[in-house]
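DATA SHEET
Item: assembly model
Revision: 1
Owner: S.N.
Input lines:
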Amino acid sequence: MKFVANVDFNGGQLRPLDKSDVDTIIKLYQKQTLAGQSEAASKEHAERLIELSVQMAATQRGLMWAIEVDGKMLGMLSLYDWQPTSLKTLMRLDALPSLDQQHQVDALHSGIDYLAHKYHLRNFSFQCLPEGEDAIIDVIKLAGFEQSARLRDFRRTSQTEFSDILVFNLILTESTAGEQ
Amino acid sequence: MNWNLNTEHYYVRFAHEDDIENIYALLSTKGVVKHHPKSPMVVEAQAMDEARRMVMQFEAKEAAFWLVEEKASGKVIARIRLQKFNWVNASAQLVLDIFPDYKIPAHVAEIVYAVLTLGYEDLSLHRIEWLLQASDARTIELAKAFGFQYEGQLNSVIEFEGQWIDYQVYSMLNEDEQWQQAIKNEGL
């Protein structure tokens, strides 16, 4: 049974992760970001991530798509903390330098559109670190997300240090769901 | 570790078997639960179920619940809890259910200070957040007066009776100046 659908977007597609994606996943997961990762990925992590992506989708706890353009995997769009009854999810977007901004925005729009229609999700959020995530923040703002909060010292970064996180939200109303 | 706390006017203590009617009296009162959001309890069996859940969540290290008993009258006037413990990030959420007539700043400060002290000192928490609905103006005033800082809004967190509920986020860090001052003053 297929738990992760293929979703086309302008110039590319979102598709399920595959065993051949290990090297790209390792490249994508080298930076420290929030959802679903606390350290840089290794081969074992990447292989486990691919296995986990199926389990997560099957139980509607999360979902992972490869972002593919011209037959090459250039990024990932993922859901964490998917709450089907509250119609909300936390998202994560990872892009190699070769995945341009417009493709990232289009991929994000298409993923949200699919999730809104298939699962009726309406509340999408991102958590970003205040430093070093400007490119992703630009993309999610272009996709319609707005910052709703800055949570102080929300995430532990070492035994004694904590970092703020920025919370971005996109809430679909019935009319915006149609537009998406 | 002693989970039962003793303040000037209150015993802030864990519930026991005889507290079912106290829990029911509190959580069947509309003014207590209206901003949480939650429907008031309508039968005492719900309080028994709630008491079981309190024990289960404590045993699972997900939350800790205290009933607040007024020393002078013996009346249980509130329930306070720390929930959603995140042991990695050293954080938790504060929730207060209290009879509206007892929402007196000095007395609530006494109760909250006792629980925050346990949270920061005994549980080594770094961040305690208080999620409040914008309609709960009295509690928001209390949170601000105690030194909780506003951080923004979490949108459409849950659905209740056909409405999506937003939460205003307030937090206190153990290194915040307000908390450090509270320690020196032995009160908020």
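QC remark: Chain B touches chain A through 21 residues (CB under 8 Å).
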